[in-house]
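Protein in question quoted in full.
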Amino acid sequence: MGSAVRIARETTELVLVECGVGLRHPSVGPALLIVAELVTNAVRHAAVTSPMITVTYAHGPGAFAFAVHDRHPYQPALFGALATAPGSGLATVVEMTMELGGTAVVRPDADGCGKAIWITLPL
């Protein structure tokens, strides 16, 4: 698990730099924590069903988005985590995203056998 999280964080840093976002930008630290938490959750909870996890990145004017995708069918209720599991990794992800004025959404795969959790953060 540690190597997957480390690789995801390092790759996210590289992508941000390639997009012209300085690593001292106030959204970078939270973005790295969020991607690490989502990858940790995917490895911890989906690895048996989904040994491959994909991180996708997108960048546009004033926004940075990324998704962590796995093929496990469970669709977490992101905003339910705030109420039912405060302090959990998923609740922390949602809380940090909202504090930054971003969005968090679960997008199921067309066949219902996987999902991507998309995070969009303003820059």
In short: The CA atoms of residues 12 and 40 lie 15 Å apart. The chain has four helices and four strands.
